[in-house]
Amino acid sequence: MLQKSTLEFLTQLKENNDRDWFAANKKAFETEQKFAKSFFTSVGEQLGKMDSIERVQIFRIYRDVRFSKDKAPYKNHFSVGFTRTKPMLRGGYYLHIEPGGSFVGGGFWEPNAADLNRIRKEFEMDDEEIRTIIADETFKKFFGELKGEELKTAPKGFDKTHPAIDLIRKKQYLLTRSFSDKEVLAPNFQEEVLATFKAMRPFFDYMSEVLSTDLNGESIY
Q1: How far apart are alpha carbons 63 and 73 in whole angstroms?
Q2: Whose CB among 17, 90, 170, 182 lies 3.0–4.6 Å from 150's, allowing a Cys bridge?
Q3: Where are the alpha helices (DSSP H) in the chain?
Q4: pLDDT attached to residue 132
Q5: Over residues 22-49, mean pLDDT
Q6: Which of 48, 53, 6, 8 is closest to 30 using CA atoms?
Q7: Contact between 46 and 190 (Cβ < 8 Å)
Q8: pLDDT, tens digit (0-9, with 9 covering 90-100), for 121-147
């Protein structure tokens, strides 16, 4: 289980996001980071029984402020990402722990140009399967809808009146499910995280098939 003290520390960090406070509370940070890492490791072990994971990344608390207007030196959350084994398995899982803002996410955050174009071309040719996936009751229960940043109009080379333009103009393809602090601290939170990851699989499996084949459905590997 995650600890109440972890959320309390992150709340205090948000209110005192400076190096002097952090230095004075370094031991508390290390304790709470240890709790979070232990939870993330446990989630990763269970996820590894459900899917093939090639990379686990527990993100550092330190922010890169070089190109940001916000110069706060620390993140006010703990987070971890799990990357599926490429090239045949695509998509990534993400867990974000933040007081009042915890969520489970997954999908395609920054697809490269070739992958993004391949996805768009698939939707241009046939959007029936993806429509079925995102209209499924389980999908809607966990995620509501497919999310992600999108262009205001059609990408270059695509018809802005195409029936699937709502999908084609997306730049990201993301799934998210939010959790309250009470849910995060509940004994069954890990099970809920894993159930949410499992609910992403039909979407991931479809997208993996798209990204490992050409428009004729022939494997590219």
Answers
A1: 5
A2: 170
A3: 4-15, 19-24, 26-50, 113-125, 128-135, 137-143, 165-168, 181-184, 189-199, 201-211
A4: 98
A5: 98
A6: 6
A7: yes
A8: 999 999 999 999 999 999 999 999 999
